[in-house]
């Protein structure tokens, strides 16, 4: 460490450091670097990829080895596409946690003050985080979903199917799409709630607990409301043959996107209005 | 009026107008009006809870004023196209993600303004963080964290620096470094606004002081004026013939008190005047000392009414 008189600019008065105006593109570059330079990003994304791809393989191997001991009813219900994509439930937990951390980590450490000090218009930070984390999730989860499908079908061998089966390609691509919307929803809830624990609870409550609570309600309510719950609507896109009572794949996905869009709008309004 | 404004030699950099911040029913900053001019280190002084940090947060748009406004070069901070070039800021609470290295933190900040890696390395060297720049910030000491905060504030080579308690947690080496840095920056014509609750630190770095208490402006003056206006310049006199001298010194504006035999504390007369009186009356003087109110005393006098958290006075009987 040094105590010598510092030199800030060798030629005072002259602008020596090149500084350019803040643009959305520059904020995106900054957020991309932020995402890459945290250990938690790599660990959690790695877990999501592993959960999705390796569970597809694992389910395939186990099913294949047990095939001869499975009862006929189970065999009749067995769906090789859905089986290979079974890791989506674990992957969404990892994506939700990381999506929340992308912003709640800034609030807990105080980093948000630096971020908003550099970008005082604020909203570009929200758009950049959504875009960067959404894009990273989309790319990695599509790769993982295809890996899960191929590995799963390879392990199922004769009991498997091909990507050209009806609804198979849509289910595989849909897995990545669903997880991308989970990412967007989590980032938005992170901006709204700001605390890590609170926001993770909210995402998990919304996606996993809410459908369970529905079971307490009368059957007629369940039939009318259940298909429109976020994770139920969203799950249609990665299910080869959705239940008769549920929404059509793309309709369900649109409903799920709508939830995320509402969360994004609320987060934008709050980010703009609240004191940081 | 227009002519007067035009010929005023130094432009206003930061201007607060009726700046007010209310949290619930608690008014933290209450109708502040002040202006900051370049080339000067302006100290921002006040007891804990006086509203210093909130004022600074409002300048950089982190908190929105309940009433009034604060502008940088006539614009709201929010509307500056490249804010890091105009204002560098170090807030009291840490503002760095602890899981990232110092280098990557500065890189992320730099990218928002298209600032080069060369400049990032420059501020790292300037802050004396060269050795530790690749370590994660969670391993940093308080002093290293402060240095990183200052490096970040300097990133855009800003015209104005707003520093909340910059010497907090620094070792003597670091304190000296901050002092020299602030002076060098002000000498380059930059505006420096630095808060502290340490009067001694202000006396060494600041030329101008803005003093607040309970969110209200108490003084906005050059530091020398604040010390002088605190008045109470006393002259301490020791003499074996103190009683006779006391009678001779008596006058309408003169207050003489004595706490020890042979000692007088005189207010209202200079040391020269007292010396002359004693000499004329052939009184022996053992000591004749002018004591000026220190900045510390001046500050205590100013903020006496406005201290948020008063320590209770414990008398010997109570303590027993």
How many E strands of chain B? 13
Largest interface: A-B, 46 and 55 residues
Quick one: overall form of chain B? elongated
User: Which sequence of SSEs, written as H and E, runs from N to C of chain A?
Assistant: HHHHHHHHHHHH
Major sheet of chain B: size, sense and barrel closure?
6 strands, mixed
SSE pattern of chain B, N- to C-terminal: HEEEHEHEHHHEHEHEEHEHEEHEHH
Mean pLDDT of chain A: 92
Q: Give the strand tally of chain A.
A: 0
Instruction: Categorize the overall geometry of chain A.
Output: globular
Q: Indicate the proportion of strand residues of chain A.
A: under 5%
Distance between the termini of chain A: 33 Å
Word description of this protein:
- The complex is a heterodimer of chains A (276) and B (320).
- Chain A is mainly alpha-helical and 276 residues long.
- Chain A is 72% helix and 0% strand.
- Chain A is built from 12 helices and no strands.
- In chain A, helix 5 (88-109) packs across helix 6 (111-118) and helix 8 (168-193) packs across helix 9 (196-213).
- Chain B is α/β, with parallel strands linked by helices.
- Chain B is built from 13 helices and 13 strands.
- The longest helix of chain B has 16 residues, at 172-187.
- Residues 1-8 and 313-320 of chain B have low confidence and may be disordered.
- Classes of the chains: A mainly alpha (276), B alpha/beta (320).
- At the A-B interface, helix 1, helix 5 and helix 6 of A face helix 3, helix 4, helix 6 and helix 7 of B.
